[in-house]
Write a structure and sequence with these properties.
mainly alpha, A middle domain of Talin 1, two-stranded parallel ribbon, 8 helices, 2 strands, DUF4375 domain-containing protein, DMP19_C
C-alpha cells in the first residue's frame, strides 16, 4: 500500500503537513497503484478539482468519461450524494452528442461560453457540504490508508 511518511516531530510543528501528504498522495499517484479507499478519495479529489477550475466541461475533457460511474459511486461513499447526482445528470447530457476533443485554451473558453453545463456547475458550487469538507472527514476516518507517522 502506498503511504506518505511524515515525521512525528514535523507534525507537532506543522499539523497541516498531514493534510498536505494526503492531498499529495491522492493527486500525484496513479489510480491503478492505489487501494480502494485511496481510489475513492482520488476520484473525488480530481472531479472536484476539475469542476472548481473549469466546470464540468473541463472535467469531461481532462479526465474523460471512463471512470464517471466509479466517480459517482465514490462521491456517494464520501457522502456527496448531491454532487453524485449532478455528475450523473451532466454526464447524461455530455453523452447525448458526439464531441470533438478540445485541444486548446481557446477551445475551452469557447465551449465554456456556450454555457451547456452552467446549470450543473452552479448547482455543484452551491452544494453543502462541499467535497473538500467531505474529503477532510474521509481522511480523518481513514488516515492509516494515507499517512504513516515515523
Amino acid at each position: 500500500m502506498i503511504l506518505r511518511r511524515i515525521s512525528k516531530d514535523l507534525l507537532i510543528e506543522s499539523p497541516y503537513e498531514e493534510w498536505n501528504a494526503f492531498i499529495d498522495l491522492i493527486a500525484m499517484e496513479e489510480y491503478e497503484d492505489l487501494n480502494q479507499i485511496q481510489r475513492i478519495a482520488h476520484l473525488c479529489f480530481w472531479y472536484d478539482s476539475e469542476v472548481q477550475n473549469g466546470g464540468h466541461i473541463q472535467y469531461f475533457e481532462n479526465k474523460g468519461t471512463e471512470k464517471v460511474n466509479e466517480t459517482i459511486n465514490a462521491l456517494k461513499s464520501l457522502g456527496a450524494s448531491k454532487q453524485a447526482d449532478i455528475l450523473g445528470e451532466a454526464y447524461r447530457q455530455y453523452s447525448l452528442k458526439i464531441r470533438k476533443t478540445i485541444n486548446t485554451v481557446l477551445g475551452f473558453v469557447m465551449a465554456s461560453r456556450e454555457g451547456e453545463y452552467e446549470r450543473f456547475d452552479n448547482q455543484y458550487y452551491d452544494c453543502e457540504p462541499n467535497v473538500t469538507e467531505l474529503l477532510e472527514k474521509y481522511f480523518v476516518a481513514n488516515k492509516e490508508h494515507f499517512v504513516e507517522l515515523v
